Amino acid sequence: MTSARKTRSLTVPLYRAAHGRTGDKGNRSNISVIAWHPALWDTLVEQLTEDAVARQFAHRQPGSVRRYLLPQLQAMNFVLDEVLDGGVNDALNLDSHGKALSFLLMDMPVQIDADLASHLAGSDTTD
After folding, report:
1. What is the CATH number of domain 12-108?
2. Which of 68, 120, 123, 125 has the least CB density, counted as fewest CB within 10 Å?
3. CA-CA distance, 101 to 119, in Å (whole number)?
């Protein structure tokens, strides 16, 4: 008789599983997410959906969130429209640059299979 192996998962901030790059143009922010290890890619694709990212940025009220996958690089790019308070030059917000928004995405919690923990950056984990 074969028994299904129950795997444990860890809740970690996204920056433990990936790093990011970002830029802004007008009222649009581009945030790229790059997996630290190819083994983490499928998990990131599953959890970092357009809807999940839109929820993470709900307080910024993005007009739209689009995701572009780059599987050969284990990377994805998110384009968030109308998220920069009109753009860097128009905003009254002191920190409206898209670069600051990448930190918000990198802090998003993700569930990682415990078997993949060795591919995570850093050492602290939360169950």
Report:
1. 3.30.1360
2. 123
3. 25
